[in-house]
Design a protein that fits this description.
With 557 residues, the chain is an alpha+beta fold. Helices cover 37% and strands 24% of the residues. The strands form four sheets. Strands 3-2-1-4-8 form a five-stranded mixed β-sheet, with helices on both faces. A five-stranded mixed β-sheet has the order 11-10-9-12-13.
Length: 557
């Protein structure tokens, strides 16, 4: 398996190609494209598009999982506790739980969460809301890059993959990480803070007991210092940037320095005060919210290479601050790159963390914002639903009767897929004797694979877990209907029995019927749509039709 993580920074785009060999992940290649400093945001995007299109033009995308990330500051993150551990239930509860935490309509957001730990049957989580506009932007960029984007994650949480054992499930604990009750005295938790200091911002993650429990984006980066160097010494931006990266240094003792070195050091120190203040405020929040004690601070990122940065931060924050190598475990072979290894270690951490998201397992899944409206985007669906909604609702009501088997005798007022999930869980426990955490679709499928001698009840269970609902098929039919500006199709009857679908209605001409039939072939399991004799009554100036096709619903026969 191979994954490519793309980190879109302010001054460069970084790419990490990560491959899995047996149980190990290895960085296979890295790429960096420096962006023009004086260019507009639009021009920088053009540079990215040209570079990435060229880079991936010969890539076999069927063998690669592409991952990109939303910027941390674009998301709203809150700590939430749920009185259950079922991920589906948590996902369905997020919009309601976060409604008061976001300054906009929950319908305009996509939600996801990361489980910090389980406490009994409860789950402590970091719940995340991202406006759909930001996800749409990422999707648009991916199309411009010419890549088939599979995962959209969040920057800070991707970086946290380098800090914890992402391949294991969240721990089970008796001790909450959240606020301590009034009057209750608990031992403070030793907390490690990790900083990724970049060009225009700093990612901060706090870790307790090998689990990231806090993440934030601080709007401070090396650019603040470069801008001051430009003003102080009347330098071009490129020269000031080169000066910071090569000759500039922090000096705690300036008594023996020459005039220029002392002035540069004082300028850097003055700029760093804003970062120190932001860090101090974040530390206070972590300590109060999590009853934590900041035991140590580690930093990486391009700016981390500044000499004596660790000593300066230690002095100002009054806690040990040291640079850290977060990607060394993934560099098991020499890279074919002109970039020095120390810069790779410092600068490519976020891109590596983004790529790691592709390898995470269901027990600790990747953040994924390609969901909801972004799973199957199609302009025909909304337009057709608006025109044909009432008819489809009537048809759906009739189809419900066809699917009222023994497991569905109760009310069908809830969504069919939701009810199917409940049935899967119930039957998985009673029939397959699966434990609670395995009583889901994945667990059922695994059980069926391992037990080939299935009885009739297990067949029914598998049918529920795999079937495509009637409403799904109706939506796909909606998607396939021609635009009403092109033709006028009136569907009078839809029948779905097992994998056989039959549609009857009227059109203005045989050409319109042919157009509709051609579009329906995309739904057919064998790419065939059959025109059958119709029993519909004749209507003036209209052509009656009856079309049938087979669709793959995953049913066991």
């Amino acid at each position: 398996m191979k994954a490519i993580g793309i980190d879109l920074g302010e001054d460069s785009v970084k790419i990490v190609e990560l491959v899995q060999n047996k149980k190990n992940l290895t960085i296979q290649s890295i790429f960096e494209k420096k962006l023009s400093v004086q260019s507009s945001q639009h021009d920088k995007e053009i540079e990215c598009i040209e570079f990435l299109r060229s880079l991936f033009s010969k890539t076999d995308q069927t063998q690669v999982t592409f991952v990109m990330a939303i910027r941390q500051e674009k998301a709203t993150i809150r700590k939430k506790v749920f009185p259950f551990s079922d991920r589906i239930k948590i996902q369905k509860s997020l919009s309601f739980e976060m409604e008061e935490d976001i300054p906009f309509d929950p319908d305009t957001c996509i939600f996801d969460f990361k489980t910090i730990r389980y406490i009994g049957n409860s789950s402590e989580t970091l719940a995340i809301a991202v406006p759909k506009t930001h996800i749409e932007r990422i999707i648009s960029l991916a199309k411009d890059f010419g890549i088939d984007l599979k995962i959209v994650t969040l920057e800070g949480f991707a970086f946290s993959n380098l800090l914890e054992d992402w391949w294991v499930a969240p721990p089970l604990s008796q001790d909450s990480l959240l606020n301590v009750a009034d009057g209750e005295i608990k031992t403070q938790k030793a907390t490690e803070v990790f900083l990724n200091i970049g060009h225009k911002k700093t990612l901060l993650c706090a870790k307790i007991n090998n689990r990231v429990v806090f993440t934030r984006s601080l709007m401070w980066g090396a650019d603040f210092i470069i801008q001051d160097l430009v003003k102080r010494y009347q330098l071009p931006y490129i020269e000031a940037q080169k000066m910071l990266q090569t000759t500039a240094s922090l000096y705690l003792n300036k008594s023996q320095l020459n005039f220029d070195d002392a002035n540069v050091s004082a300028l850097i120190e003055k700029c760093l005060r804003d970062l120190v203040r932001d860090l101090q405020m974040s530390f206070l929040e972590i300590e109060s919210e999590l009853n934590a004690n900041i035991a140590s601070v580690y930093f990486t990122g391009g700016f981390s290479l500044l000499p004596n940065l660790g000593a300066y931060l230690t002095q100002q924050l009054e806690v040990a601050c040291n640079p850290v190598n977060l990607i060394g475990n993934y560099m098991t072979a020499p890279l074919n790159s002109s970039i020095p290894e120390n810069k790779i270690i410092a600068q490519f951490g976020t891109a590596l963390g983004i790529a790691i998201e592709a390898f995470k397992k269901p027990k600790n899944p990747a953040l994924q914002f390609l969901k909801g409206d972004f799973i199957n985007q199609n302009s025909f669906i909304k337009a057709f639903w608006n025109d044909w909604g009432k008819l489809l609702q009537v048809s759906a009501a009739a189809l419900v009767v066809l699917f009222s088997w023994a497991y569905f005798r109760e009310s069908f007022s809830v969504d069919l897929n939701e009810k199917g999930a409940e049935v899967i869980s119930s039957k998985a426990k009673s029939v397959a004797k699966l434990p609670k955490k395995q009583a889901n679709e994945k667990g059922v499928k695994k059980y069926i694979t391992e037990h080939k001698k299935r009885d009739q009840e297990m067949k029914a269970l598998n049918r529920v877990s795999k079937m495509t609902s009637a409403m799904d098929i109706l939506k796909k039919i909606s998607d396939s209907s021609p635009d009403k500006a092109q033709s006028k199709i009136d569907v009078t009857h839809v029948s779905i029995i097992d994998d056989a679908v039959k549609i009857s209605g009227y059109a203005n001409s045989p050409r319109e019927i042919s157009l509709f039939s051609t579009k329906l072939t995309t739904l057919s399991s064998d790419n065939k749509v059959t025109e059958e004799p119709t029993t519909l009554a004749a209507v003036a100036n209209r052509v009656a039709f009856s079309l049938s096709f087979k669709t793959d619903r995953g049913l066991i026969k």
